[in-house]
Amino acid sequence: xxxxxxxxxxxxxxxxxxxxxFNSLESIAxxxxxxxxxxxxxxxxxxxxxxxxxxxxxxxxxxxxAGMLADRGLEVTELSTHIQxxxxxxxxxxxxxxxxxxxxxxxxxxxxxxxxxxxxxLNAAKAxxxxxxxxxxxxSGSLAFPYLYxxxxxPAGLIEEAFEELARRWLxxxxxxDEAGVDIAxxxxxxxxxxxxxxxxxxxxxxxxxxxxxxNYDPSHFLLQQLxxxxxxxxxHERITAYHVKDAExxxxxxxxxxxxxxxxxxxxxxxxxxxxxxxxxxxxxxKLAQYGYDSWAVxxxxxxxxxxxxxxxxxxxxxxxxxxxxxxxxxxxFADSGLSRDxxxxxxxx
Length: 351
Known about the structure:
alpha/beta; TIM Barrel; 10 strands
């Protein structure tokens, strides 16, 4: 029987801080539950909220965490490994910046940083399994993105070699996730080597169609690229295993377009917005996902250059709840069924 999409969920990465109630999982869970959220997507590398190493090794830790959330009417939607996935593949142009997302012990040592990210991703597979999850969300990392729009032209084979290397790094991780029964849903995001359908296919092909290589669907990134985000669902719905509900707007003018002229977020032609304040057609998206039987979580990833975060979170839960379609269990025109037999039907056809 058809099942409903789950939600509303909330990605905690943009809310975690050193200030209460955002500095522990218990207190942020109380806050989120009070707003009407039913699930939390947890950034697995934020020790204020989650101990990934302990979760990977201790079923008791995972059971206690799940129990604490259940007491508040919540559950874990997915573990996020966006940071660890990014650090699996870093172009040298970004080494210094991305060192800041890794432990100090591996700063200045890209090999050690990559090995740390690899182990973190493996731990996230184990932790996800212990939490009873079937999907995690991540970034692919990036070796090729600085060459997106190059001058001079790219040397022959540059992009192919970048994706071959990306596949070499991800394949053993994909296999470990397969053993754990967990999908890796990549958020297709400019700055990553996987930022649209074509680049997703480039990695998928090199992973021989690995069944654990899936998509965290986020229409905001597609709108800012001027990609048809509804047609994307038609093409890739079988690979969509997670969903970030995030709004955006694109208002080009005579001075800037998709690239937004190095302007700050407030001045860009393309900007992320709170739910309902942008241009994304969420009614059509939720309908498409219901059409194709998507039954996992709808998770708010809040980002906005104008609205306060607390306001965006408070508005996000009812927005998602109002868009979740209660999927019908029967055809709307069943009342008009004539009840004819197969023989009667054949007779109508003159057979």
